[in-house]
Amino acid sequence: MYSQSNCQPTLFDSHTLDNQGHNSNPNLLTSNIDEALEILKDWKDLESNLDDNLPILIGSRAAKYHLPSFRETNDWDLVVTVSQTIELLSSFIIGFIGSFQMLFYKGIGVKIHGYYKSSKKNSFTFDLDLVTNGQETIKNDDGSIVELLDIPIVTSSKLIMDMCREVDDITTIPLFGLKCRVASLEVLEALKTSHIFLPANFSKNISDLHTLRKVLQYTQKIPRTHSLFEPARDQSVANMLEIRTKETEITSEIHGQIFNRNKINDDNFSARLTVTHDELYELVKYGEQSTFKTMRNDLQNSWIDKSLFDNADYFTQLKCVKEEAMTIALKRYMIPRTCVDYEKAFCLALSHICTASINVWFRKFAVDNYPRLLSCDKDLTQIAKDIRNKCKLKKAIGDISILGQHFPDSDSFSIVEKLIQQTQEFNPPDLILPEPDDINVQFETFRYGLRIFPSNGKDNNEQKRGLECVITVVYKMYEENESKINESWWASVSVYPFKAESDDSENVDQSISDTDTPNGTDPTTNHPFDYDMINYDVEIVELEQKHILLIYSDHGSAGLGGFGDVESDSDMSPWVLTKPADQVASELGIPELNGDFLVRYIIAYLDPELPNGGDYPFRKAITTLEQKKGINMMPKQHLWFYLWWYATYFKRGDWGIS
To answer: Where are the annotated segments for Disordered (predicted)?
Structure first.
């Protein structure tokens, strides 16, 4: 029936408790639907206090029921008892379950995630929140207990079921004819509020939230001169929201979706730029003085004083948030060219404030007033261009102190001092991927480049020779359903000799057209991945010696190329491919410069990262090597250098991280 080997945590290696006593891993009870039914039948025998009524439909499909104009969705989110779950899963068996997980979260309870596909090509994802009697058991075939699940008596799912037992709105799950009650709009608005601070799918979620608040007329009577605010709720809904928010915080920490909000100003941003956060405030301010800066007591960090903010008039408060959003848009997106459309960059920055602001109350103000903050009042394009040009002039001395942290000994530092004088950043051609057919799939691309010249090559136009390095990062997010996000990251570091034919720096700024590269393949071959948006597949194209580092990671149920119809939860672990760099390093003719030193320098200089927590499994793997396997790592190096070094010298250039 059920083997102990199946009772393993997913995503991480061991059971650990946070400081609230919660299990920081979900425990995978089973990924087999038949085993899940056997487990549930044991639990059903213990049920005594739960009345079987109907499942409760929540999420976007419930909103669509109430509001026909609401966006389309392809998932079913349900709150269910054990008996109802057995009935549902027994019906699903007649089709094909593309993926299935039954998970236990300590402090929350049991959740089931899956993807259903019938022989008639009908498909949808399902997400079930189980309501149980509390403590449940997992047993072996002989009846002995494998694990005791301590489930809270009061969970948000239990409260939702209690509130919705008597609602009159009923719909039917297609294919099976199974009926379910539909949660009220008040409950749906509270559920949306409970996870609005998460970065994943924020744009969609914030739009849904304010659609619901508008329909419920929470904001209709508030004049334009007054702040929008979170609605007053019935006590039962407020209690459910409080518990659901805490549950969401636990699961989001587990899956790495929480941004570190405890950092001083500028620490959350790339060190590649010499312009400071405060300098950017001066460029986007509305009047003689930056509104945001006037509300800070300590100019060394990004905290603003709540009392100063509360005492300001509403329009000043809006300007304060917009100044911060424009500053973030410039520094995170416009200047490094990860997004060149200033209006889109502003929206991304506003999303960042709503999900990652240090001050919870500031974040909440931005969420509540989001519809009135959406427009960017300044064209940031020229500001970003001027800053990029200014930074190029300052670059030679701008990062020496930062680079020195990675090369603490005097001999290494002296080489770095020479190299930085011979290094020049450039903007590689953008890698523009075709739009995916599935609206639930989103891609972001990031690209950085530098050139290292021989000592006589940087300032001599007739001898524009040297090494060129391009780092590419592609981030994919697929929303399987409202509570399950699949994320994937692909990154590459390419280093190769080059000889410039022209000193026209604008030649490198042109984007790669998606009409020339239908699958998003990089015609420069620096990023050796082929992104097929029709078949939802990713493949590695021909590897060359210049591809010194390739990184892949996946969180969720997608495999190496999986965007949607996935069949396994663990097809691909975090993975690293490398090649040695001694040969390409010799091109510079510097006796002290070997491949290791070159890779250290390039990665430290460009300081790449996998966005939205993508580096976490790799960082954990390196920590494990140091603490459990006794591998001596060179201190104070960039994570990506550790990955390259270990994979190259211990794994022959091919490291699948279990």
So the answer is: 1-26, 502-528
